[in-house]
Amino acid sequence: MKFDVTGIGNAVVDVITHTSNKFIKESGLVRGAMTLVNKKQSDIFYNTIKKKIELPGGSAANT
């Protein structure tokens, strides 16, 4: 059996970290939800969150 798959989508990176409810609220995030962020938000989060795990995400990457 042979399969051909073409995935078209955005390059999405999941960032996993431990954080406080205060940080989530102040950042306008929702616990347990996926949030797309722009470049400015991404820069703020990457500079603020020191201990994190980055994983490829998005439906195209997870196919």
Protein model, in words:
- This is Carbohydrate kinase PfkB domain-containing protein.
- The radius of gyration is 15 Å and the shape is elongated.
- The model has no long low-confidence stretch (mean pLDDT 86).
- The chain has 63 residues and is an alpha+beta fold.
- The protein has one domain.
- The two termini are 18 Å apart.
- The chain is 25% helix and 16% strand.
- It has a two-stranded antiparallel sheet.
The major sheet is characterized as: 2 strands, antiparallel
Q: How many helices does DSSP assign? A: 2
Helix percent reads 25-40%
Using only C-alpha atoms, the radius of gyration works out to: 15 Å
The main sheet orders its strands as 1-2
Count of the separate structural domains: 1
Q: In sequence order, what are the helices and strands, one letter per element?
A: EHHE
Q: Roughly what is the average pLDDT, rounded to an integer?
A: 86
> Could you give the count of β-strands?
2
